[in-house]
Specification:
It is a single chain. It contains 16 helices and no strands. With 356 residues, the protein is mainly alpha-helical. The protein has a single domain, classed as ABC transporter involved in vitamin B12 uptake, BtuC.
Length: 356
């Protein structure tokens, strides 16, 4: 027999019991670390534009976006990898290897389009090597990608040595740096926007993306829930290799040269931007709009500091400080959030004794 009280008064949705979903939607969007990064970007950009002459010019905007493009590209798959509680430190070496591959094949007489396609295939292969070592062999991604970082960079340097390849077709070098009229926005940003939308849809609006979050929170639970954990991780590393190779091709045409040491150290800037954008180093948390804002925030800071003649060493210190702050701040605020209620309870427990 059916309980009439149950039918008359249905139980509330269990999902609303979670504190996150008990808040209004606007609060869940605005009171987040990602939105705070967006606000910080606006403040820094407005402050630099008002205090530094010519900072707000289209020329400055164009150079800022051109410099940020490879970081924006690589940050997209890196976000997904970090959310899955893995890491890929070999991205800059894949950029360098694809850069050298394109240059060496072009120097050997290949058409530039075919050489670029070969560089993309090589990037996929590099990502597959990382993915196989992590998912099939079972090695930690940190150890694997530190090793392949050195391996891929060594191959890149070995292909060209101290030689540089230049004189790429003017059509491609001009196309890479061209802007829309007097707006200061480069053509290449169209590619960045298309890829960003694709990754946003993949991460936030598909079962595959929900599986990435599940893996980052608890890999075993995700596996029991039907998520193909190893296959998902393998795909993420392949995507990372592919997009890193694409960034390497852009790097080649942007600077008009191929060298074995190109893009060295770029992985640290990418990881700093991703963590600054709200992605947890422990996995399971993050949003791409925060990451994109984090990349642009670091790029704006670097550009503004260069305008006031700050040395590259000091700029690296600032980026490093931001990286440390982005890692430490979640733990600090969690500690603070727990400490305040405890202090209130202690005061409440002592209040009757004091009145007595």
């Amino acid at each position: 027999m059916t309980d009439s009280s149950t039918s008359l008064h249905p139980a509330p949705s269990r999902s609303r019991a979670y504190p996150y979903y008990s808040s209004p939607a606007w609060k869940r969007f605005l009171l987040t670390r990602e939105f705070a990064v967006v606000i910080a970007l606006i403040i820094v950009a407005v402050g630099a534009s008002t205090s530094i002459r010519k900072f707000s010019s289209p020329l400055t905007l164009g150079y800022l976006l051109l410099d940020a493009t490879p970081i924006l590209l690589i940050a997209l798959p890196m976000t997904l990898i970090l959310i899955s509680a893995e890491i890929d430190l070999s991205v800059a070496s894949i950029v360098g290897l694809s850069n050298v591959t394109l240059g060496a094949l072009f120097d050997a007489g290949w058409p530039v389009e075919l050489a670029a396609l070969a560089a993309l295939v090589l990037g996929i292969l590099c990502g597959a090597i990382n993915g196989l070592l992590v998912t099939v062999v079972g090695l930690p991604s940190l150890a694997v990608t530190i090793g392949t970082l050195a391996l891929f960079r060594g191959i890149a340097v070995g292909i060209l040595g101290t030689k540089s390849v230049v004189n790429f077709p003017e059509y491609w070098t001009t196309l890479t740096t061209s802007i829309f009229g007097k707006s200061g926005i480069p053509y290449v940003i169209v590619l960045v926007v298309i890829l960003a939308l694709a990754f946003v849809l993949l991460l936030h609006f598909t079962p595959f993306g929900r599986g990435i979050f599940a893996i980052g929170r608890n890999q075993e639970v995700a596996a029991f829930s039907g998520v193909k954990v190893q296959r998902t991780k393998f795909i993420l590393f392949v995507l990372s290799g592919l997009v890193s190779a694409l960034a390497g091709i852009y790097f080649t045409f942007r600077y008009g040269s191929a060298r074995g040491d190109n893009a060295q150290g770029l992985e640290l800037t990418v990881i700093a931007a991703v963590l600054l954008g709200g992605v947890s180093i422990f996995g399971g948390k993050g949003a791409l709009h925060g990451v994109l804002a984090g990349v642009l925030l670091i790029g704006t800071l670097q550009s503004a500091l260069r305008f006031v003649n700050v040395t590259s060493d000091v700029i690296n210190i600032v980026v490093g400080a931001l990286l440390v702050a982005s890692i430490v701040s979640p733990s600090f605020f969690a500690w603070l959030k727990g400490k305040i209620p405890r202090a209130a309870k202690e005061r409440a427990s002592k209040a009757p004794a004091n009145r007595g």
